[in-house]
């Protein structure tokens, strides 16, 4: 029996991996994708962390919890009486699982549609031989001319407090809490911590977030971070900055976290559940890189150049397992770019225009540089800002929190950064990404007609604010 041979074999079926395999197939390559993720019945569940325990399920729970919050606190404003509103956690989790399965099945359908061969199991290197790579694909060994590594990342554990997914939870366990905890602790105020904290806070948990850094959302524009901290505090999220965790103890009835606060005083926090979201680490578990001499860096990430090439000929790597932001859409763009480079095309990823989103309420989204980065770089800039409070559609929605902020070069007016905190920020940011890709000026956005009434008018007005000529504020 001859060994199956492919032009392109992708190890990992997350956003970077499955997209790379599909694009390779579109370009005429005989492509395969290997992924070991299993559903609760042991069947294949491609989509990686994003689909199974990350982006997709978290947004499903955020949507459910937001409906619950609206029913309890905002329906009355619209003349809707909703008394004795209850939450069925099992049904909410069940809906989330259904959304996940729909995405899993959708990827399997896309593989079939694009004639990508799918192997369910772990992918790993066996050997390099005669210009090809022997790769284990589950129970089989196949041959590949090109290998694209898209093995993703894993949640970073707190030293001395490993995940048990019962009391000390990663993003995985945080998505499967069977009942609303009375008290919930979150270590880390990044994207995952704030999103999961928001879900369970809306459902009735008393949430305390402990952050080691002295600043809140340090990667976000300072004015946005300041506004977010104010609004989250108003909602009931307790956020402590500058803390140092000294000990975590688990018991049958919960978790106790000992820490020193920003002033150096010893504190203790007793919670029913503890979510640890202190970042993620590249995943090369079981990849067997030593079999072919694949180079990893000190963090365990696969070393690549600007084109995602590794130190090995015809071996590429994309997504969370390489340098750069750990974002699903960044992985997708790299996957497409690598497939196109293999085909001799000029695939490209512009790291300066990758959007970031935090799906809290209000949402936070941005692209480009922050005001503090421009100051540090000595760039002369102009800033313009417009509040949703002055936007007609936001008033009709009953969601007027936040603002849109533009940063533009003082001389050329080129857009250098756009920062949004407010309703549907995740959707509004796309206009800014397109504008920056085309090297647009703030004046370009200010001169474009935006539909009325729409939230996007706040984007136009913020661009107008660069030259202090807003029309509605």
TrEMBL record:
FAD binds at residues 59, 123, 151-153, 320, 326-329. The active site is at 452 (proton acceptor). Pfam families: Pyr_redox_2 (PF07992), Pyr_redox_dim (PF02852). Gene3D superfamilies: 3.30.390.30, FAD/NAD(P)-binding domain. GO terms for molecular function: dihydrolipoyl dehydrogenase (NADH) activity; flavin adenine dinucleotide binding. GO terms for biological process: 2-oxoglutarate metabolic process. NAD(+) binds at residues 188-195, 211, 279. This is Dihydrolipoyl dehydrogenase. It comes from Paucibacter sediminis.
